[in-house]
Amino acid sequence: MPSIVTLTLSPALDCATSVAHLCPDKKLRCSEPAYAPGGGGINVARALRNLGGKALAIYPAGGPSGQHLSDLLLAEGVDCQPVSTQAWTRQCFNVDEQAHGQQYRFILPAASLSAAEQQQLLERLQALETLDYLVISGSQPDGLAADFLPRLLQLAREKGARSVLDSSGPALQQALQCGGLFLIKPSLSELGALAGEDISDPEQLARVAGQLVASGKCAVVMVSLGAQGGLLVSRDGIERIHAPIVRKVSTVGAGDSLLAGMLLQLASGASLSEAARYGVAAGSAAITVSGSGLCTLEDTQRLYSWLQQQPPQNA
Fold first, then answer.
1. Catalytic residue among 96, 166, 256, 299
2. Strand pairing of 12-19 and 34-38?
3. Domain Carbohydrate kinase PfkB, which positions (predicted)?
4. Is 256 a catalytic residue?
5. Lowest-pLDDT range, 58-67, 94-103, 137-146?
6. Whole domain around residue 81: which residue ranges?
7. Would 64 be classed as within a structural domain?
8. Percent of the chain scored above 90 by pLDDT?
9. What's the sign of the alpha-carbon dihedral 308, 309, 312, 315?
10. φ, ψ for residue 309 (rounded to 5)?
11. Per-residue pLDDT band at 1 (split at 50, 70, 90)
């Protein structure tokens, strides 16, 4: 199977807990915390592992929190190559409020990377013998060199890899300016911010995504639409994939699971349409899992079987 490598520039040690009520000023007694590795590319690698696939996770890691993150990844059986950093890896918190069934996600700033540490990440990727898919997922830390992303994408091109980007804001804009991307996976709001317009109807959504493909900046756009599924846009056409109805428990890692499902199928030789459907199934499966558990193979296969019975939907 082609090699899949994920790069996470802003990893996190995720802590999940719950409280009876959220209210100001009082001490809030929390449940026993559960820790999990976090960050876009790390979650993609974890979800691929859950689905029976394999990816190498490369990421910066510093301090006890970074070591804890790496230990958790190894315990899950995820191949990883951390690059040691001076700054401690951040922690993030997911809190379930039991009284109203709401989830609150507290995202702390990412640890900064020195120029030397950024160079080490590039050298780690350059040293890989094979690189078929490079997945750049998650936010960027403050202080990242202006030429880091262009150098990263150039490195992928030189190694013959397909670049997959799941980010937003300036990182997404800069990557598209570089061009040559294989796949991007924006949410509806991220795509609207990129286009500079509020996307309010399916026709507008298809037009905005289609313009990105027509420009040659990327070959495939997979717009994640949450509980509504996703929109697949490529030169082969446009397909709307409606997600199966599931009971929402946690949204943590749903988009990462979607991307992992797509990559697993593409690496196995599936068509874009088949891969997108499997991705939506994996994303829907992740929603049914508490904390940072991501998708399971059993739930993904069950939901994918349902999706296979649905006729293709044009946008």
1. 256
2. antiparallel
3. 24-295
4. yes
5. 94-103
6. 4-9+41-90+120-308
7. yes
8. 83
9. negative
10. -85, -5
11. low
- 292 compared with 182, residue with greater pLDDT: 182
Quick one: tokens of 181?
């991307």
| Residues 149, 167 contacting (CB under 8 angstroms) | no
Inside any domain, residue 135? yes
Cα within 13 Å of Cα(133), Cβ side: 28
Of the candidates 187, 179, 178, 164, the residue with the CA atom closest to the CA atom of residue 213: 179
- Helix, strand or coil, per DSSP, at residue 185: coil
> How far apart, in whole angstroms, are the C-alpha atoms of residue 165 and residue 176?
10
Residue whose pair of structure tokens reads 């820790």 in the numeric block: 35
Looking up tokens 């990844």 gives 73
Helix (H, G, I), strand (E, B) or coil at 19: strand
Q: What is the CATH number of the domain that holds 228?
A: 3.40.1190.20
- Token pair listed for 314: 């044009």
Each residue of 159-170: pLDDT tens digit?
999 999 999 999
What is the tally of structural domains in the chain?
1
Residue 95 lies inside a defined structural domain of this protein? no
260 pLDDT above the threshold of 80: yes
Q: Would you say residue 75 lies in a domain?
A: yes
Q: What is the largest CA-CA distance in the chain?
A: 56
Local confidence band at 309 (pLDDT 50, 70, 90 cut-offs):
confident
CA distance 53 to 4: 9
Cα–Cα nearest to 52, from 290, 263, 272:
263
pLDDT of amino acid 101: 86
Q: pLDDT, tens digit, for every residue of 267-298?
A: 999 999 999 999 999 999 999 887 677 999 99
